[in-house]
Design brief:
Shape: elongated
Structural class: mainly alpha
Order of helices and strands: HEEHHHHHHHEEH
Radius of gyration: 31 Å
Strand content: 5-15%
Oligomer: single chain
Largest sheet: 2 strands, antiparallel
Distance between the termini: 59 Å
Length: 196
């Protein structure tokens, strides 16, 4: 709406059912702006007050309380959005994992899991080790494999080209089946194997 289309007086705006009116006169703070019909408050003053740090904190508290009191509703809404937008969710998670904060959180989660559930962590590591031993044939060059792990570039994972565990095929723990991958690519690949 342009300024000329607003009613000039509050009473006229009320009779028209308009939400705002414009007098052309400055408010107490000196703003020449539209005013709200319901309260007569200057729109510019309200905008400035609502964007102070204190007002933002208050808005956050109100929103947090609303979410806390309607947890099931908001959880369902978030779940539905995630199900409808898996690509966006994946992109958001990748950006977060790549950020410095995300790296610290994931490292912390891994450490806290190891501290909280040492038996589970040990069981997982032992199961992984057993799979590697079973997947390592007698003719495998253990020294080359060990050297490959030692020479891993910083920030990369050692990955099996053909996964050790897969429903279609199981690879061997041999030097020819190892490669360096960035963590994001390794997590994306997981234990998938596609024949190209």
């Amino acid at each position: 709406m342009t300024i000329s289309t607003y009613a000039k007086k509050r009473s006229a705006a009320k009779s028209l059912g308009a939400k705002r009116y414009f007098t052309g006169k400055p408010c107490k703070q000196g703003h020449i702006s539209t005013r709200f019909t319901c309260s007569g408050t200057c729109c510019e003053c309200l905008f400035i007050r609502s964007n102070t740090p204190e007002a933002k904190i208050q808005k956050y508290k109100i929103a947090s309380l609303r979410i806390k009191n309607n947890k099931e509703k908001y959880n369902k809404k978030a779940r539905d959005w995630r199900n409808k937008n898996p690509d966006k969710v994946r992109a958001i998670l990748q950006r977060y994992r790549a950020s410095e904060n995300g790296k610290q959180v994931y490292r912390g989660c891994s450490r806290s899991y190891a501290i909280k559930f040492p038996q589970r962590r040990a069981a997982n590591e032992n199961a992984r080790r057993a799979i590697k031993i079973n997947a390592m044939p007698a003719w495998a060059d253990k020294e080359k494999i060990s050297e490959f792990y030692k020479n891993r570039p910083h920030g990369y994972h050692v990955d099996h080209v053909i996964p050790l565990v897969n429903s279609k095929v199981c690879g061997l723990h041999v030097i020819e089946n190892l490669q360096y991958l960035k963590p994001v690519d390794n997590f994306r690949k997981h234990n998938k194997f596609e024949i190209s």
